[in-house]
Amino acid sequence: MALSSLFRSSSQPKTATGADGILSMPSARAVLIASVGCMLVLSLLMVASASIPFALSRGMSELYFFKNQLLYMTIGLIIAAIPYYGVSLRRLYKTETQFILLGVTGLLLVATLFSTPINGSKRWLNLGVFNFQVAELAKLVMIVFVSDFVVRRSFEVRNGLDGFLRIMLVVVLITMLLLSQPDFGSFVVILGTIFAIFYIAGAPYKHFVALTAAAIGGAVLMVTTAQYRLVRVMSFMDPFDDVQDTDYQLARSLIAFGRGQFTGVGYGESVQKLSHLPEAHTDFLLAITGEELGFVGVTMVLVLEALIIGSAMRISYNALKRRQMRMSYTAFGIGVVFIAQTIINAAMNMGAIPTKGLTMPFFSYGGSSMLISLVMVALLLKIYKESPEIEKSQCRYY
After folding, report:
1. Tell me: the pLDDT tens digits for 47-68?
2. How many CA atoms, within 13 angstroms, populate the side-chain half-sphere of residue 388?
3. What is the CA radius of gyration of the chain?
4. How far apart are CA 280 and CA 293, in angstroms?
5. Which residues cross the membrane (predicted)?
6. 109 with 47: CB under 8 angstroms?
7. Among 298, 324, 365, residue whose Cα is nearest residue 71
8. What is the pLDDT of residues 269-328, one digit of tens each?
9. What does pTM read for this prediction?
10. CB contact at 8 A, 125 and 132
11. Residue 370 — φ and ψ, nearest 5°?
């Protein structure tokens, strides 16, 4: 109720039936709001269940993390209202706005290098209410920046290497700051999203081959030169080789899925959350869902994520049909971020890839991810609302 009222637009809902009397597909806006709302409710339920043992072991109230997650959602909805009601999309795509956003993001990333380490990484700034992970903001800023860049420099992007080289200067600066934290997961998501936007913008295939080869080479180098990354890869290769040490998290996650089977052991009945799976309410919340709600519960989460992603792509396609290229690429980029994080988090929980600290959008516990994800939804709804209202002569600015 709160989510729909916050993002209510002035546009009229689509009719329930088409011209031939057959029920038409719900609007992207309706599907997006309903899916996000269901995800938030499911997130609260599973965080409440998964976090109780962890909270009690640290002398906190049993619903400490549940209350925090609810607070993060409330703050996220309030912050998301700012771009929806107070920011003009045309102003957002102006060059000076892009550089202000990049500058602020860069300064915040630099500031994290002087912050207090948490779990061995300097990724967060203490904002009092919660620790903010600047990499989440960087994802959104890079989407908007690249979406504008590939339109302004469309000839260079499609006909030469200049477009790639110009954007890579900015990307290298941002990603170097991410890697120094270190935050390899966010680096992969941002780089993959940029490649995806360049691809649909018509960049030549040969550039992708060269840059993909360079990216793979760089990734291999970073894994082999960092001991903790190498340990994660080796643990992934054989998750039951050393279940009491390096393979502990992954092995416990797989055991959780195995116990859940089709319908789960029952809500609140997880064994792995009883200090067996460390901080089960964060990156491994899907594993606890698999244990308590089984295949049915995991499928429910992934279907809701798919509906959110599908809504983003529908909004992108509708803007594309109206030749509002910046808006189309922005919605597409947001969809790609959601796809990447959903696949990586689910695959990590299921042992398909090495463990990586990336959240499941709208589901895992965490203030930064929740806030920026809701802002991304607000931007999608803003595009959905304004796209039909823009005159054809003005589309080149959007």
Report:
1. 999 988 888 888 899 899 999 9
2. 9
3. 21
4. 15
5. 30-50, 70-87, 99-118, 130-151, 163-179, 185-201, 208-228, 293-317, 329-350, 362-384
6. no
7. 365
8. 888 888 667 777 888 899 999 999 999 999 999 999 999 999 999 999 999 998 899 999
9. 0.86
10. yes
11. -65, -45
